[in-house]
Amino acid sequence: MEIKTISENKEDFMDLLLLGDEQENMVKKYLERGELFALYDNDLKTAAVVTQEAESIFELKNIATYEKYRGNGYGSFMIKYIIEKYREKCSQLLVGTGDDEKILSFYKKFGFTYSHTIKDFFVNNCDHKIFENGKQLKDMVYLKIAFVNE
User: Fold this and answer.
1) What does the angle CA 76 – CA 30 – CA 78 come to, to the nearest 5 degrees?
2) 3 state DSSP class of 146
3) What DSSP string describes 104-120?
4) Per DSSP, what are the bridge partners of residue 70?
5) What is the pTM of this model?
6) Which pLDDT does position 23 carry in this prediction?
7) Quick one: CA dihedral 105, 40, 17, 69, positive or negative?
8) Are 19 and 64 in contact (CB under 8 A)?
9) Residues 6+ apart with CB under 8 A from 139
10) What is the reported pLDDT for 149?
11) pLDDT tens track for 4-38
12) Which residues contact 73 (CB under 8 A, 6 or more apart)?
């Protein structure tokens, strides 16, 4: 497995990124200013975007694995890579996601803990209803990892 940082032609990864965030106009906004990572295992499996939100705060905005490759550890490998990469760069790494227990527990196993909730985020910011595991997403739940940088 190899993870590459992509700095050109980022929109070539849009089909994969839209699996992680269905709102294309939002993906374009953070993709432009974010750092894009692509995980290859022979071919492309997973992509992720991280943005800087404040002087010492970064956010994992998107992580997506092609459906046929899910369950093979690619997403976990990418999360571990991002945590290690940003451990020295920031005091806090955030991730915002829907209020879905399966997704929340995925992030929690890497050490993310609850930070805050933005009520009705998906209702107010998406041009269509967003569903995850059969449940309509309404609130954005933020999780965080706080790094102790000396």
Assistant:
1) 10
2) strand
3) HHHHHTTT-EEEEEETT
4) none
5) 0.89
6) 82
7) negative
8) yes
9) 98, 99, 117, 118, 119, 120, 121, 122
10) 56
11) 999 999 999 999 999 988 888 889 989 999 999 99
12) none
What's the rounded Cα separation, in Å, for the pair 103 and 101? Answer: 5
Helix (H) or strand (E) run with residue 75 in it: helix 74-87
Number of domains in the chain: 1
CATH number, residue 134:
3.40.630.30
Alpha carbons 12 and 3: distance in angstroms, whole number: 16
Least Cα distance to 82 among 142, 5, 9 occurs for 5
Which parts of the chain sit beneath pLDDT 70?
126, 149-150
Range of the structural domain that residue 130 is part of: 2-146
